[in-house]
Amino acid sequence: xxxxxxxxxxxxxxxxxxxxxxxxxxxxxxxxxxxxxxxxxxxxxxxxxxxxxxxxxxxxxxxxxxxxxxxxxxxxxxxxxxxxxxxxxxxxxxxxxxxxxxxxxxxxxxxxx
Length: 113
Hints:
Elements: H1 14-25, H2 33-43, H3 84-110
Protein name: Lipoprotein
Organism: Pseudomonas putida (Arthrobacter siderocapsulatus)
């Protein structure tokens, strides 16, 4: 008995067909059951399975940093008639205020990183 199958039926290639022909050569001629089962496996098409996959993507979120209040600057109340010593002290105090204000701004901006 010689088995001749078109390999396009199953779409599985020559290796499967050659193996099936070797099996069928060793069986008695009346054994069509093996051939029927072999072709029945090719006739049913399997539907593709839909799988949902969770993908985590980083999303940019706007930063909500606390607002830093602008201080009342020490040199804002200076007058033209104030002495040089008062003006220098006010400017030095304002410098310390500015350094503190900048640190508050940096810490507020740093909370967003």
